[in-house]
Every structure is written in C-alpha cells, then in structure tokens.
Amino acid sequence: MSSQMAGVLQLLALIAALALAYRPLGDYMARVYSSEKHYAPEKWVYKAIGANPTAEMRWPAYLRGVLAFSAVSVLFLYGLQRLQGSLPGSLGFASIDPDQAFNTAASFVANTNWQSYYGEQAMGHVVQTGGLAVQNFVSAAVGMAVAVALVRGFARSRTGELGNFWADLVRGVVRILLPISVVGAVILVACGAIQNFAGIHEVGQFMGGTQQWNGGAVASQEVIKELGTNGGGYFNANSAHPFENPNPFSNLFEIFLILVIPFSLTRTFGKMVGSVKQGYAILATMAVIWVGFVALMMWTEFAGKGPAFEVAGGAMEGKETRFGIGASAIFSVSTTLTSTGAVNSFHSSYTGFGGGIQLLGMQLGEIAPGGVGSGLYGMLIMAIIAVFIAGLMVGRTPEYLGKKIGTREIKFAACYILITPALVLGFTAAAMALDTPANSMTNSGAHGFSEILYAYTSGANNNGSAFAGLNADTQWFNSTIGIAMLLGRFLPMVFVLALAGSLAEQKPVPETAGTLRTDKPLYTGLLVGTILIVTGLTYFPALALGPLAEGLAS
Fold this sequence. Notes:
By secondary structure, this protein is mainly alpha-helical. Helix content is about 65%, strand content about 5%.
C-alpha cells in the first residue's frame, strides 16, 4: 500500500469515528449543561469553595468568576514550580526560574501549554501531575463554560443571566472530561504508553554512553492533553515520543481525542438553541476547512521535488517513521486548527508551504473545529460577522438565531477578532526590530522570520506548538509570550461574555421571508468565505515574508 493511500484510509477511519461519537456526545453535553441536578462530588466542591451553584449570573459576574479562578490558578502553579526543589517527588530537579515559571503558569492556565523547557529534565512528578495535569482539566473546562454561556445568550431572551460559572466549570470536569479521560488512559496504556511514578533510570547504550529516562503518569496526562486541546508534553518530543504515543493506532486515537469534543459541541449548540440544523451548519463549516487543510497539507508534503523526496516518498524530514507523512499531516493540521499544540512531528521541518498551512490554521482563530469551547465561541463570532456582511449587502438589519445584530453586538464581535492579530503582529514586529530576540533564531531569512511569527501566533492563539528552531527560553520570550498567552486567552472572553449578555437581554425577532437562513449550504459557503477573507487576509503580508517566500524559493 502506498503512503498516500495509507494516509487517506486513516483520514476516512478518523472521520467515521468522529461521526459515530458526534450525536451521543453532543447530546450528552447538552444534557450536562442544562441539568438542574447536582451530584454529591460536585456538592463537595461547591461547599469547599463557597459557591452557590444555583445562583444565576449576569455576564460581569460570570466574567469575574472566570478571571478570579484563572488568576488563582496562575499563582498556584507559579508557586508550585518555584517550590519544586523542596517538594517530594521532584526527582532531584531544581526549582524553576522566575521567568520560566511565569511563562509555564500562564501557558497552562491559558490552555496554551507552550513549553520553553525539557519536561523530562525540568519537572518532577508533583509539578507534572499535581500542577500541569490539573490545569489541563480545569483550563479546558473554563473554555467550555464560556462557550456554553454564549450559547445560552442565543437561547435565552429578556434576561441577562447566563448560568453559573462554578457549576459549568465543575460539571465540565466531573461529568465530561474525567470520565472520558479514564477510559482514554486505559486505552493508551494498552497501546504501550507508560503510567508510573518511577524515578530516573539508565537504559541501554546511546552513542557510546548510557541514556537516562524518567517514568511518570504519562498516559493519564496524555489523554487530557489531547482531549482538552492542551498540548503540553510530558517529554520534550511530545507526541512523537514512544512513551506518549507508541504506535499508529495510538496516534489515530490521539487525533480523535483532539477533535471529538470541539466537533461534538456543535451538536450541543444545536440542541441548546432548539435547532440541530444550526449545529449542522456550524459543523459543516468546520469540516470543510479541516478537510481542506488536511488535503492541502498532504499534497504539499507528498509533492516535494528532488532525490531525497523521491527516495523517502515525500518530505519525511522531522517525521516519525512509525506514523509516516499521511498521519503526521493529519495530526499537524488537527493540532494547529485546534488550540492543542501537541506535535507528533517537527513542524519546523515541514516544507515552506506546509509551515504556512500550520500558521494559517492558527491565524484563522483555531475555529475548525478549534479548541475545547474556544472553537465554538470563536466560530459563533465569525457567524455573527457573516450575517452582518450579508445584512449590509441586502440593506437590512442582520439577525442570527432570532437575535438582532446591532451596533453593540458587532462592536463586541469586531473587538474579538482584532485582539489576536494585534498581539501577534505587534510582538513579532518588536522581536524582529530588537537585537536580543533576533539572536534566538536558529535560521536566518524567511524561515527565521517564520520561527518568531510562529511563536507569537502560537502563544496569542493559545496553541502552544512551536517551530522549535527558536530558542524561546530567554527572559524576553518567556515574558512576552507569557503576556501574549494571557491577553490572547482572557481579553477575547471579555467580549464573548459581554456579547452573550447583550443577546440574552434581547426579545426574539420572528423569522420573515427576508430573514437569512443560517441553516442552509449557502450560508455555510458565506461563513467559510468570511473566515478566509476577514481573518486570513489580516496575516497575508506576514505570511508572504515567511512561509510563502520560503515555499516559492524552494
């Protein structure tokens, strides 16, 4: 079987698995977030933190809950890293330096999981399991909570109440993420991923000397790393490491974990707003972009010219022979079109156009299907922009799901889509203008520029993957990328929740003959075009200086 055919078959198998999980998981999540029942473990949590899960919140109170919880999480994780040298289970590793501890704390709380350190050489069992793994759960649940709040904004009327943040947070962890993670961890252990608390030990011979590895609760952290679209690896090689991702089946299973909740949330959205067709329209938009990007990535990586490409069957540099080009391309696109950031191949080694596809996937806002929660609310923002554009073309006030999109709503949506480009392009320009950041580039020219552009694109979009040719473990990059991650995560949430509150206060508008049908293929095409034009063209000049220039020169 050819490598191309193997890649296509894996893609078809993945689509089939996602289709089977779509309806039951989507319906289940809708029931979770609509339920009025509280389980005993959840009540214990509410009592411990002093929260009243039945109290409805308007958007300012909901936002305060998000920010307060996240701020405490940053401080806790920062302190845990700074105290590592004094903690049991540290494996002899020293405490983390202040700038790197800040960067890592901001990264994991912001669901970015950017790593400027070698996991197996820096973090002990307590930090990995009690700090990083815990944030993998709760940061994902925060994103899901904000998405559900926006959905309630569409579903409710004549009220500014969006639910209760603490109830949404706890339910997301206890009822959705934990159960799936337990089953997923067992599957990964069966595939060969490790799960222990072993210390550092020497294994075999490596280039004339011994090689050292440490154990860890890898399978349990790996599953929530993918399921929660987090991406931070227990080992520096991330999902290319055989302890994290042992074989082709585990690789396909991890891609499934990355995509299953973001895609299924469109079903949840449809059920909660009372129209599954609206969910299918959002799903179709996500699927068209994802499949299109996978096809483009496979084409550019298989179509390389030259003797090395012909012998290897494509651009195999930086890719695991266990997975090949097809599975690596699917993983790469899935991780950059979501906020996952996990890698099973070396992104810097992709062709020039392949690197451009990775960058563009993040720059679109990671909405196809996007991160857990963040993908859905990002896509709904673009849906509002699309109906606004359609309204301008026909000269009538735009409506979406029975809510008028007026001046206030479009301002919130516009601010949302402007924040991330401002962070990415501003920090990239500053880094290129200064001598110290530029000295961290391994490569010069277009590829060197792409390294820095990729770093800030990944940070501000809360992705976490890297070109890896950039030495990001400096005070400049640890500080600026940390700031970009926090602003890129929480500033958009301000406008999402403000928009949700504005929509919830409105009186529903009855559908008329002039109402744009947002559950039809025509609207799906309009939405795809809006995403590619409004967000894609924002970055075109930067992409032209980096991956496009590199691709045309090769």
